[in-house]
Design a protein that fits this description.
Length: about 350
């Protein structure tokens, strides 16, 4: 991955370097428009960074993450010796005729958090619109919707789209699949697709799912074959992660609750009472960057054997906190008229408050 600051690169262990450079490593870092977590304070994660929290709805222990410590730990310093790409290259796969805002929110948020490059792979109809929102984004109009593909062309079109996407995939530190993909039968929304084809992420410890309340309900029904049980929320989340096999899930809501099937952590810092659409998209772009940074950080710093820190969880914790802080600042200024674009404008200040650029 290219997210490592220059100083860290010198510290990389040979093994870490080889692994980070390998196509397998890169291929596996997928962020699937949902995620969740475990907590630790970055390189020196310890039980002291987790504060047990009495969560009435949960039977198992849920730890309130020391999210500011996580952000400070994993955010790389701005090193003048670094070149373009080293702070992260993120791709968003999403955006169709109906939904052009979602991929834009995710992609621009990744840049505002600190990634160097942000690509969007979307349909031809969505591409010009997304490009017009921002010249910062690199937009690939390569996806197709069913209305533009004849039945007898489906297979050949699919295969040429895949060839084109695969050409690029190796270059990214994290790929966010889903914002604004919609439900078109040819295109298919990321989480909707995953819910019905769980094998796509099974046993992939680099996959993060970030379901909202409806998406979580569908996941629980499909995978655990039961209804969401708020009395037993943390155990159910843990069971879901385990059943899927080691993925990280961030269940979004009043608190963002994160598990990788081992621990359950939450971020409950208050954000905003506005529930305008697109906040989950900001979250996915932010988590993509932070989880890439967390992986670099952990690869660059030898971890004590007894401490197993999951960088995907750290990325979720950091992304959740940043979104919530930005939402709080945007609401303070805009009150009831707060919209997603206002929140994005405060991502920079929120990160600066925790982790000043000149540190
Ligand atoms: N400005 C934009 O372009 C935005 C686009 N977005 C995109 O909009 C799409 C839809 O996202 P939502 O979060 O609204 O998710 P859903 O489409 O899952 O849900 C929307 C609502 O419809 C209901 N629903 C969904 N499927 C149903 C079904 N088969 N039968 C009955 N009820 C059903 C759900 O329960 C929920 O209340 C996604 O692709 C998302 O990425 C959002 O991210 C918000 C911003
Ligand atoms: N009830 C709530 N109270 C406080 N914050 C919330 C609440 N629900 C959601 N949030 C915040 O909004 C973020 C996005 O969650 P949301 O459920 O809106 O996702 P989403 O539906 O996928 O969003 P999108 O509209 O981008 O698709 C969460 O990470 C959390 O910070
Ligand atoms: Mg969403």
């Amino acid at each position: 991955m290219g997210a490592c600051p220059h100083a860290w690169q010198h510290q990389l262990q040979h093994r870490g370097r080889m692994w980070a450079a390998s196509p397998a490593f890169r291929r596996q870092l997928f962020l699937l428009r949902s995620l969740a977590p475990t907590c630790a304070d970055g390189g020196r994660a310890s039980s002291s960074s987790l504060r047990p929290h009495a969560m009435s709805a949960a039977a198992g222990p849920v730890y309130e993450a020391d999210a500011e410590a996580v952000v400070r730990r994993i955010t790389p310093p701005l090193d003048r010796a670094r070149h373009k790409g080293q702070a992260g290259k993120i791709a968003i796969i999403g955006g169709c005729r109906e939904y052009t805002g979602a991929p834009y929110f995710a992609a621009i948020s990744a840049l505002k958090v600190g990634a160097d490059l942000s690509h969007v792979f979307c349909t031809k109809d969505a591409a010009t619109v997304i490009k017009s929102y921002s010249p910062e984004l690199i937009v690939h109009p390569i996806l197709e919707e069913s209305y533009s593909v004849r039945d007898d062309e489906r297979e050949s079109v699919s295969s040429s789209i895949l060839t084109e996407v695969i050409k690029w995939v190796e270059r990214f530190d994290c790929i966010v699949v889903g914002p604004g993909l919609g439900r078109d039968s040819f295109l298919m929304d990321g989480l909707f697709l995953i819910t019905n084809n769980i094998g796509l992420v099974e046993d992939n410890s680099l996959a993060i799912l970030t379901p909202n309340v409806y998406e979580y309900k569908r996941l629980v029904q499909k995978i655990l074959n039961c209804e969401v049980n708020e009395e037993n929320a943390s155990e159910q989340l843990t069971a879901l992660c385990q059943k899927i096999g080691g993925v990280t899930i961030m269940k979004k809501g009043k608190a963002d609750v994160i598990s990788d099937g081992k621990k359950v952590t939450q971020v409950s810092t208050f954000g905003s009472p506005r529930r305008c659409g697109g906040q989950g998209d900001i979250l996915s772009g932010s988590v993509a960057v932070f989880s890439s940074w967390a992986r670099h950080f952990l690869l660059s710093n030898e971890q004590p054997k007894e401490t197993s820190v999951n960088p995907m969880v750290l990325g979720c914790i950091a992304g959740s906190l940043l979104l919530r802080k930005a939402a709080a600042l945007a609401f303070e200024k805009n009150k009831r008229s707060t919209v997603t674009t206002d929140i994005i404008e405060f991502l920079g200040q929120s990160l600066e408050d925790i982790c000043p650029a000149g540190r």
